[in-house]
């Protein structure tokens, strides 16, 4: 039997108080990892999640930071490395939300916010946590991208611009740090069912699902499972990958 055991590993998940982030945090904790739960404003949800993880017998730190600000990210790093000495797995999940509209109508500030939360966040996280990974000759950096990066539908421009920029950073970083046994990969969810959908009974969307080869929306747990795989030794020879988890709705081509 093959199982995933992250016992002894530490993980940081940005945006862990959000819809997808909280499931990733629980999943890595259930696999044995100690988890740092990052939040920006939702302290209550982060502290509730911390209690859940500690109830599983794992260590957990709830840490506030602005992931677009270098000083704030450095302060988060100093706290985490001060308490745990090492972060083995970094999951960059946080993103700034905004209202989508056409290129002509989208405020310029939305493009700036997407650059900051999609590109700059990952640069700052890499600068903060990868040097220690290089010293230990091991590490995992996992970014949450999106199927929108391949769709390029009307109204998606700011989000797509940020996430495609993120993709470039990840591909270059994978080549730069691979010699140190550090993998750098991306998970690209489709339109995912989360707790919000379950609470509002909005899990079913026939219009979207009809275009998906598997004829359904994915779940937050299925996204977290992909993150768990990339965090584990089972993915030790995978780096630089953009992995859609969307039932085949988009398919990277050779």
From TrEMBL:
The keyword Oxidoreductase applies. This is 3-oxoacyl-[acyl-carrier protein] reductase. InterPro entries: NAD(P)-bd_dom_sf, SDR_fam. Its EC number is 1.1.1.100. Belongs to the short-chain dehydrogenases/reductases (SDR) family. The keyword Zinc-finger does not apply. It is an enzyme of class 1 (oxidoreductase). Residues 202-212 have a biased composition (Polar residues). It comes from Paenibacillus favisporus. One of its GO terms (molecular function) is 3-oxoacyl-[acyl-carrier-protein] reductase (NADPH) activity. Keywords: Oxidoreductase.
């Amino acid at each position: 039997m093959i199982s995933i055991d992250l016992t002894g590993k530490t993980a940081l998940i940005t945006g862990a108080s959000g819809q997808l982030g909280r499931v990733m945090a629980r999943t890595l904790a259930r696999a044995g990892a100690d988890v740092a739960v990052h939040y920006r404003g939702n302290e209550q949800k982060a502290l509730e999640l911390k209690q859940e993880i500690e109830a599983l017998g794992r260590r957990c730190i709830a840490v506030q930071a602005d992931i677009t600000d270098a000083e704030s990210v450095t302060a988060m790093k100093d706290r985490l490395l001060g308490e745990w000495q090492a972060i083995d797995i970094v999951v960059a999940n946080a993103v700034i939300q905004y209202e989508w509209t056409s290129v002509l109508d989208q405020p310029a500030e939305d493009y700036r916010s997407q650059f900051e939360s999609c590109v700059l966040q990952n640069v700052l996280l890499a600068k903060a946590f990868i040097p220690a990974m290089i010293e230990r000759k091991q590490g995992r950096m996992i970014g949450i991208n999106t199927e929108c990066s391949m769709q390029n539908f009307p109204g998606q421009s700011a989000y797509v611009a940020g996430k495609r920029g993120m993709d470039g950073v990840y591909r270059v970083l994978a080549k730069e740090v691979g010699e140190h046994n550090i993998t750098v990969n991306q998970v690209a969810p489709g339109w995912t069912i989360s707790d919000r959908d379950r609470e509002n009974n909005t899990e079913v969307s026939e219009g979207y699902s009809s275009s998906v080869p598997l004829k359904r929306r994915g779940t937050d747990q299925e996204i977290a499972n992909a993150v768990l795989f990339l965090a584990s030794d089972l993915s030790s020879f995978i780096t630089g990958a953009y992995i859609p988890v969307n039932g085949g709705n988009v398919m990277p081509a050779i």
